[in-house]
């Protein structure tokens, strides 16, 4: 039995929240708001006019230049993307590799590890399934996966990490923000525990980067993976791996690709020497439309800045939690607002009819087992929180 999450305390005073009118002006850039109350950014960030323009530009270049667009423009856009991601998370562009999905990016890292002396991978019950599956599939190579148990359905204690990580641990793999609860983990503390025991640490930051300021130097992590789909507003098929510079040359992927070799345009089948940068973690030809889409999304993130994004999202989150509590719902979130994020689960035995009814009424939220999942972002209005909770009350009360 898992213990119920403690009732969250509200420490933020709504009366003192800034209006953020300048952020609301961005709504006009996101066409979905013409038709829906969209509160599902943790599943898929909203499409912007800038990403649309980027994808159109990609098609225009493809149509007018054909393959010469690669050399004249697209390789440059890839380099620009690595640079912009590096700037966002306080890394160098040489420490950033582009990939198609978190699953594929993790697979590349997992192929670099030597499991002969350290064969243990530590992850948690609350991480995204692909994180565990990656190493469960390596049982035949003697890899053992340890799932640190959750204290409740919200968080994992640092003491539990401390107990699970030992001299046989090769890697600790866990989230910055849990997709199941929105809980923001102390990744700096987790990295410190892992390193003290000689293990590396990989952070799945797919639910963090964008809505939570991310600084890989300060956190001291070895790898950090994130991408466009959610809080970076870049759509599908584009993620990145940060790999710490002084680790890079020790990484030898055994699932390589020609984008990862040092002399890729030498076209030499005999020479698989990996690139000197994190590009050695890249595989085959990238989706350039996704590169353009993500550059469009990232422009908002850089323009607004991670601190303001966090501040705005916190206000919306605290408002949503307060309204849910007042209406008699039980949010499945951290007790401390500092550890909450823009992912709010509202416990509900059967969320399916509720989410469907909300969709009928024009409000897009999501569900996870036993909960409705609502995720406001900077472009949402307080009034949209009210609409969700009012609709949930109507459905619950059969009105
Ligand atoms: C935290 C987290 N990691 C990984 C994934 C999935 O990654 P991918 O589909 O790119 O492998 C998701 C959800 O889409 C997620 O929320």
| Assembly state (oligomeric) | single chain
Averaging pLDDT over every residue, what do you get? 93
Structural class: alpha/beta
Number of helices: 13
Compute the number of strand runs.
12
Distance between the termini: 34 Å
How are the strands of the largest sheet arranged? 2-8-7-6-5-3-4
Distinct ligands, ions and cofactors found in the model:
pyridoxal-5'-phosphate
Helix and strand element order = HEHHEHEHEHEHEHEEHHHEHEEEH
Description:
- The protein is an alpha/beta fold and 399 residues long.
- The chain has helices at 21-24, 49-65, 68-89, 102-110, 129-136, 158-164, 187-196, 216-219, 245-248, 288-304, 306-326, 351-360, 382-396; strands at residues 37-38, 96-99, 120-124, 144-148, 169-175, 200-204, 223-227, 239-243, 344-347, 363-364, 366-368, 371-374.
- It contains 13 helices and 12 strands.
- Strands 2-8-7-6-5-3-4 form a 7-stranded mixed beta sheet, with helices on both faces. It has a 3-stranded antiparallel beta sheet with strand order 9-12-11. It has a two-stranded parallel ribbon with strand order 1-10.
- The structure holds pyridoxal-5'-phosphate.
């Amino acid at each position: 039995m898992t213990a119920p999450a403690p009732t969250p305390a509200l420490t933020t005073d709504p009366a003192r929240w800034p209006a953020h009118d300048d952020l609301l002006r961005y709504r006009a850039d996101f066409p979905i708001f013409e038709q829906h109350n969209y509160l599902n950014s943790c599943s898929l960030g909203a499409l912007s006019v800038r990403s649309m323009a980027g994808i159109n530009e990609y098609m225009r270049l493809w149509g007018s230049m054909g393959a010469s667009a690669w050399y004249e423009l697209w390789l440059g856009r890839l380099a620009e993307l690595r640079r912009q991601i590096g700037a966002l998370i306080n890394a160098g562009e040489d420490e950033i590799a582009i990939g198609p999905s978190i699953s594929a990016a993790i697979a590349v890292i997992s192929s670099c590890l030597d499991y002969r002396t350290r064969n243990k991978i530590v992850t948690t019950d609350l991480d995204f399934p692909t994180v565990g599956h990656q190493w469960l599939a390596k049982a035949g190579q003697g890899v053992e996966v340890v799932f640190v148990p959750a204290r409740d359905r919200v968080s994992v204690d640092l003491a539990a990490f401390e107990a699970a990580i030992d001299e046989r641990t090769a890697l600790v793999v866990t989230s910055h923000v849990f997709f199941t609860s929105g809980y923001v983990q102390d990744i700096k503390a987790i990295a410190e525990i892992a390193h003290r025991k000689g293990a590396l640490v990989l952070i799945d930051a797919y639910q963090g980067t964008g809505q939570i300021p991310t600084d890989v130097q300060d956190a001291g992590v070895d790898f950090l993976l994130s991408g466009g789909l959610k809080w970076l507003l870049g759509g599908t098929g584009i993620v990145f791996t940060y790999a710490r510079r002084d680790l890079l040359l020790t990484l030898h992927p055994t699932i390589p690709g020609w984008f990862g070799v040092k002399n890729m345009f030498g076209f030499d089948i005999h020479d698989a020497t990996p690139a000197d940068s994190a590009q050695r973690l890249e595989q085959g030809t990238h989706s350039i439309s996704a590169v353009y889409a993500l550059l469009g999304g990232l422009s908002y993130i850089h323009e607004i800045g991670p601190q303001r994004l966090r501040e705005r999202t916190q206000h919306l989150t605290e408002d949503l939690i307060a309204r849910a509590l007042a209406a008699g719902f039980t949010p499945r979130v951290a007790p401390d607002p500092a550890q909450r994020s823009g992912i709010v689960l509202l416990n509900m035995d059967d969320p399916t009819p509720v989410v469907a009814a909300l969709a009928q009424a024009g409000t897009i939220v999501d569900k996870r087992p036993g909960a409705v999942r609502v995720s406001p972002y900077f472009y949402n209005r307080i009034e949209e929180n009210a609409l969700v909770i009012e609709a949930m009350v109507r459905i619950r009360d059969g009105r």
